[in-house]
Design goal:
This protein has 517 residues and is an alpha/beta fold. Helices cover 30% and strands 19% of the residues. It has 16 helices and 19 strands. It has helices spanning 40-46, 64-76, 96-100, 116-122, 128-149, 163-168, 189-197, 203-210, 218-225, 238-241, 260-274, 343-361, 378-387, 462-472, 488-491, 493-500; strands at 20-23, 29-30, 36-37, 58-62, 110-113, 156-161, 233-237, 281-282, 289-298, 307-316, 321-330, 367-372, 393-400, 408-409, 413-414, 419-424, 427-430, 451-457, 511-512. A hairpin with a 2-residue loop joins strand 16 and strand 17. Helix 5 packs parallel to helix 9 (218-225), helix 9 crosses helix 16 and helix 12 runs parallel beside helix 13.
Length: 517
Amino acid sequence: MTTVPESLMSASSRGRPSHRLLAFAEPRLRFAHEQVLDDPKDGLLLFGPPEKPVGLQYGVIGTPTGIRQFEAWAKKVRAAIPADAGVKSSVLYPGFEAVFRHDWSVTPRVKLTIDEDVLSQTVKLIDPYQRVFDTVDLFAEPIKRWVSEEDAKVALWFVVIPEAVWKLCRPQSTVSAEDAVQPVVNLKHADALRRANEPEFFEDANQAAEKHLYENHFHNQLKAKLLGAEAVTQIVRQTTLAPTEYLNRFGQPIRKLQDDATIAWNLTTGIYYKAGAKPWTLADIRDGVCYIGLVFKKTNNPADGNEACCGAQMFLHTGEGIVFKGAVGAWGSGRIGEFHLSAEKASDIVERCIAAYKSWHGKPPSELFIHGRTGFNREEIVGFLAAAPEGTAVTGIQIRRPNDLKLFRDGRRAVMRGVALEIDSRNAFLWTSGYVPKLLTYPGREVPTPLRVKIVFGDTKLTQVLADIMALTKVNFNTCIYGDGLPVTLRFADDIGEILTAIPEVSSKPLPFRHYI
């Protein structure tokens, strides 16, 4: 039985639901030899990916222990990894070359070693901003030097980090008093921000203060610092590569991980994409379509609480993605998490995206969809439409997850993925997570929560908008899952926003999406 809350019923329905349920077929994917299936694992096993990277040479940076563990893992994924009989969703991983039809070297082309003793002291600095800044530089500076000075190039860098980096180089992390290491200059955050804006006589204190302008998050700061070098990275924890080397007092791994086969599927799919080739593409989305996901993130400017950085993620139906850094400005609306651009800046983002599309296809897109978590105000809509050339239809869509509606099959079982509840011609709830017949299960733990989809402006039919969103849940190339809960236009929005504001000056050059994930 399906229950619809009274808040979703029209006043004229007199107790009868005025909405209808829709069902969308699972979007199909295209693999090598133009073969089409809906499951990425099946498609890769049977046919392989539709394109190959120029090369799959890679580098690795880490401690001697981390590099040893990585090389053992690299050798492991060259061979078959059996499915875990105790995990229903586990699927045999037949080996990298069998999955991707591409050579996989078990030996990195480049190995850069981090001194374990130096790293151990750096991650214990009591000042969290200096701790993260200096730890990131231990990894970022050797990569930047190699990229700029050496002839041997790689497509991808593996950054192998010990558990201490993951635990101590995130916001709110603290070092215990007995382990704490005092920096040369120790500043309170407020004092550091004042000094960074008004440098004083002592240079070492000014340098320590400047580090407080950087986000104290290892992942985001490393990615941001390497954008200028255009170095693509895959950050991986040592406990992921060698879980049995890190046991608790009961003799069990200290982390609860997915089974080995699933980890191999997910990591190697991300590796293949980051090396420059798509493991699959969408089969049925229309040609000439372009999608933009808007990203907003408040900056670390203490003088202006409304200041935010705007960015745009642009995606094509083939899966190509590129990230544009937009302007920094007072985009805050006064409501928490809601931002709005000026007409000029809204127009600039669309112009840049259309120019990039034309550079790939020789002509502007016929349809442009703008996805955002917040709605679009009149000024933004005017800017978006003004930048679109004749012949390009623009549609603005708000996508959020309000968590105020639950549906069940038979009153207790999870609703099927692909079900939508149409409210009217411009509003609907869409279940991108739910029971999947192909998997014979619902791959989740909590009751599936739908996306609330609203067409803010534009004339595209609601059913087409919903079908496109479903398709965009199939191109998260950072993993190898049947379907994601969010379209790729919004899946990494928060992470990209964090990277764009992680350091004071991020390279504004548009870069492929793989640099950010």
